[in-house]
Amino acid sequence: MTRAAAKSPMIERILAGPVLIDAHAHVGADAAAFCSGNYPYAITAEDFVLRLDLTGVDYAACFPLVYTAYFSLPDFVHNRFVRSSGDLSPIPYGLENERLCQEIFEAMPAVAERLLPFAFFDPGREPEAQVSALESLVARYPVYGLKSATSYLQSHSTELLRGGRCLLDFAARHNLPVTLHTAVIPGDPWANVFEILKVVRARPDVRFALAHTCRFDRRALDEADSLANCFVDFSAFHIHCKLAQQNHAAVASGPDRFPADYTRHAAAMQAIAEAYPETMLWGSDTPGHQFIGRFVDDRGEEHWMHLTCERRRETDEFRQLPDALRDRIGYRNTVRYLFGQEAVEARA
Ligand SMILES: [Zn+2]
Description:
By secondary structure, the chain is of the alpha/beta class. The chain has one domain (20-347): TIM Barrel (Alpha-Beta Barrel). It is 39% helix and 14% strand. It is built from 14 helices and twelve strands. The strands form three sheets. Strands 1-4-5-6-7-8-9-10 form an eight-stranded parallel beta sheet, sandwiched between helices. Strands 2-3 form a two-stranded antiparallel sheet. It has a two-stranded antiparallel ribbon with strand order 11-12. A hairpin with a 5-residue loop joins strand 11 (291-296) and strand 12. It is globular.
């Protein structure tokens, strides 16, 4: 059996469930975060699986961290997006996606029983060359989806409707879901959740997950819920609750904010999951369940955040939800997102 074909037994095992799946996590190293003094900056596949064991999570979708060696490191650290003069990664995430698959499937094959790697992409830079590299990657390794975090690349998500359309064509061709980092903070046009929803509406042939609970924006949650191809993940929920308590601009405020008691993590998560029972996915964002670092907006202004979260907090709070709701957001919705309704029905 080729490595790429190894996907089917893994999917079969998961569909035989029920199991708990983390829909949003990262594996790898981010040299720019390290050099900037930001946290987190790394987690190995082996360390991540230790955390899964510690917290009782069965499977996890995992993607690289944000920095790609496509960019000059000293420039990236100073928020300049300059192509590296070296040849480590001739295209965005070429090196990081290969590295993730090598680590999981070659260096540590035991972890391949638990991890569902997603490939990272940049919607605006060299999309066709990225698709060629991704075609080669999926021919050699089981890859389960795509991910981007456009805020930190200053790349517009709506490029997916223009030059980056081929990346979504690739996702549709291989039945791969696409997770996108979202934002509502003014000064982040790159991952604005309403711009992303335009992409989701225009591509009913692709399944999307909008990360970070759409930053609690009820209008975005309503719209995501109304679209059959759209899911929303709860990634890094605890630190987002902290942002809501601080009335930080990174989350929706006033009447735009989904009404819930954000001082109580599990109660707020339950209220949102009950309002959108077919749409929500549980995800921890490990190791980004904590975030100490900066976001630089479109005027070059820095927004520092110091958001910590205990290592078992995301799973402990999740376990306070009623059984049926946990089954939905930790399994049933997640398999529909990962593999598609048809795959789930074919097995039922
Ligand atoms: Zn993340």
